[in-house]
Design brief:
Elements (H helix, E strand, L loop, with lengths): L1 E5 L13 H15 L3 E6 L8 E4 L15 H13 L6 E4 L6 H4 L6 E4 L9 H7 L4 E4 L12 E5 L19 E7 L6 H10 L4 E6 L5 H8 L8 E3 L8 H6 L1 E6 L9 H8 L4 E4 L4 H4 L6 E4 L2 H10 L5 H11 L2 H27 L1
Parallel strand pairs: 1-2, 1-4, 2-3, 4-5, 5-6, 6-7, 8-9, 8-11, 9-10, 11-12, 12-13
Length: 352
């Protein structure tokens, strides 16, 4: 198939550091190329891919202070894709609802993966207006706030099988928190769990501009405890050692997590997960196999001991069975073929 992947321009594909959506776009794009498809990636010019890169900005907009209106490159990208739509069998967007109006009025099959939270009230009228536009959820729980949306499939994220692997020469000896420090991620809970269990906690996370006040007022004072070590943001190359050295990854979230990429990153390294039962957690964590989903701080504290009995080899095996990029890419190909066949049928009926 001739497939267009249309990525956000905020980060490169893959991103240099944090950027969950852009990393998934990268893994999917490379997986589709490996499966033999002709893929064009519309993304920032500093992206790296085996597909054909169509650069839509000189570099990732987050890293380019010369760009003051970030909507302008995005608008131009949508117009460029529209003008080139006849070159493709499938247009796959990763821009939330932004393509809906323009691309629902043309004939090339399209689909949009929804990467974020969907429980915001302002989304309701948007999806009321575009009930026929096919979208993909990244967990079944993510769908709940928008029953009117045209969900074509739920496709779980995946990682390249050998991107993150267990470090067998590393002995687990601490709890880990990975990702982003924000109110909904509840790093404060992670610190409290570590202190309650007298276990060292290593925090590898970024602080977005929007969360600086929260970090300074709430989290930074808690990091003075001797059990807590703040590492900061880490890259892909640093993750295997960081995660392999952890007894468990703590994901004490307090929001409807759409998927939670950090959980399968830990599993890829053979590291079990202790996560609060919100959003996608019960779908991603196999209870008693890859970790535990908990409802209270007391359960989370108890799980720190329980998780030590889990087989790290079994955790890795479950990752290979459920969360590889190849499985994700094949799931999308199956969906593309179904949507393309359905669109062709619609056009044939309309022509009769």
């Amino acid at each position: 198939m001739r497939i267009a992947q249309i990525a956000p321009l905020t980060e490169a594909v893959p991103p240099k550091l944090y950027g969950g959506t852009e990393r998934i776009v990268s893994y999917l794009t490379e997986g589709l190329v490996e499966l033999g498809h002709e893929v064009t990636l519309f993304a920032s010019g500093d992206s790296v891919t085996a597909a054909t890169l169509a650069p839509m900005s000189a570099k990732a907009l987050r890293l380019d202070p010369s760009v003051r209106d970030t909507n302008a490159p995005l608008a131009l990208m949508l117009e460029t894709v529209y003008r080139r739509r006849h070159e493709f069998d499938m247009l796959h967007f990763h821009l939330d609802y932004l393509p809906f109006s323009l691309f629902s009025r043309q004939g090339t099959p399209m689909v949009t993966t929804l990467h974020g939270r969907l429980d915001l009230p302002e989304l309701q009228p948007v999806f009321d207006a575009f009930r026929d536009v096919p979208v993909v959820s990244i967990s079944n729980d993510q769908r709940k706030p928008l029953p009117q949306a045209n969900f074509a499939s739920t496709i779980y994220h995946g990682l390249p099988e050998h991107l993150l692997t267990p470090r067998t020469d590393t002995k687990p000896g601490y709890l880990a928190f990975l990702g982003r420090i924000a109110p909904e991620k509840r790093c404060d809970r992670a610190i409290e769990i570590a202190i309650a269990t007298n276990t060292k906690l290593k925090i590898a996370a970024k602080v977005d501009r929007a969360d600086v006040d929260y970090y300074e007022q709430k989290i930074r004072p808690m990091m003075d405890h001797p059990l807590v070590e703040f590492i900061g943001e880490i890259n892909e190359q640093q993750k295997p050692e960081f995660l392999s050295g952890a007894t468990a990854l703590l994901t004490p979230i307090d929001w409807p997590e759409p998927f939670g990429l950090v959980m399968i990153e830990a599993m890829a390294c053979g590291t079990p997960v202790i996560a609060f039962r919100h959003g996608s957690v019960p779908e991603v964590v196999d209870e008693g196999i890859t970790g535990y989903a908990v409802d209270t701080m007391q359960e989370a504290i108890a799980a720190v001991d329980r998780v030590k009995a889990l087989s790290r080899a079994r955790v890795r095996q479950q990752f290979e069975a459920r969360f590889t990029a190849r499985r994700m890419a094949q799931d999308y190909v199956d969906l593309y073929e179904r949507l393309a066949h359905g669109r062709a049928t619609e056009l044939l009926v309309a022509a009769e």
